[in-house]
Specification:
Elements lengths: L17 H13 L4 H14 L4 H12 L8 H10 L1
Length: 83
């Protein structure tokens, strides 16, 4: 996750299904976190998990197969055996 400067927290309210709320409580307990902290961290993962420019360019290059090195498996096996 990128460096994130946390701003002051603001209390808010959401309506959630009872089933979802219970599931979130269970997952928060499993992670030994408060419900608030768990939900906030899940939301932050979703919102801030966007790839940066370098990663996006690498993903595009990989899809277009641009300038990718190929791996000779036999050479790699020889290298691993030499370790």
């Amino acid at each position: 996750m990128e460096n994130i400067i946390l701003s002051p927290k603001k209390q808010t309210a959401f309506r959630l299904s009872e089933d979802l709320l219970e599931r979130l409580k269970v997952e928060a307990r499993k992670a030994n976190r408060s419900l608030n902290n768990y939900v906030e961290s899940v939301l932050m993962d979703v919102v801030y998990k966007t790839p940066n420019r370098t990663t996006l360019e690498a993903m595009k290059d990989a899809k277009e197969n641009k300038d990718l090195e190929t791996l000779d498996v036999q050479d790699f096996e020889k290298f691993v055996a030499s370790l």
